[in-house]
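Students often ask why we bother encoding 3D structure as a string. The short answer is that it lets us treat folding as translation between two languages. Here is a chain of 287 residues written in the first language.
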Amino acid sequence: MAQRLVSVWQPFFLGSENPKAAVAAAVELEELGYSRIWFSAGFGQDVPQRFREILDGTERIGVAPGIVSIWHSSPAEAAAFTENAQQAHPGRFLLGLGTSHAVLVEGDGTAYRKPYTKMVEYLDALDATGLAPERRILAALGPRMLELSRDRAAGAHPYFIPAEHTAEARAALGPDRLLAPEVAVVLDADPATARATARQYTSGYLSLPNYTNNLRRFGWTDDDFATGGSDRLVDAIIPWGTPEQVAAGLEKHYRAGADEVAIQVLNGGDKTTFPSEAFRALAEVLI
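And here it is in the second language, the structure alphabet:
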């Protein structure tokens, strides 16, 4: 396989209570040749300091939140964090923004209304701070948000999608915008246990309308969403098997137009242990 931009999406980096362990894992990924580390910014009012800790502890690897919720972190705070990171580590921090989900936003009393309009207003506020569009990327699924990613950001960071969505996203973005989908994987060649691990992940996302509505556009139905996902849906979204088989699944996204694939290794929901052996094995076949 030709060399690609291969990055990492892993909840460990925010979930770990040990900053030194997070930085050590980041250093190893940098040495292996991964291009960027993505992880959630959570749902606090500030961009977590963990992003800066990893930037300070590494030399070359990029860092990006996937994503900062526009309902939780203010445009001024997000812009200030991004500018400070840019001054300290030029070109290495990319601000990932997303509209999150109604169930997560309304849980703290905020009304989840008109998320597209909210994103436009947020981008307007970022523009007012002087933050360049090239310093941000949007979590985009539907056509309107993909167009916004093209027109007002560096590109798109789709999440929980099949390769067919990557092809649609590339067509919407055009050739010059960054397309960096997240793709979860399972390094396990046994179909029963691999799919069981995958369903621990898919079951939560298939309860969120943002994702199921997006999948319906590609022909998936309620039958596919039941009980954690049909085998066909699980196999389409979660490459599993040997490192070589997983690499073949990731290749579908590159062929569909991805510039960079952010690999999330599923390890049974454990957010405190970094799956270093899996990323070493994948580096051997991908980088």
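Translate back mentally: The chain has 14 helices and eleven strands. Keep this in mind for the problem set.
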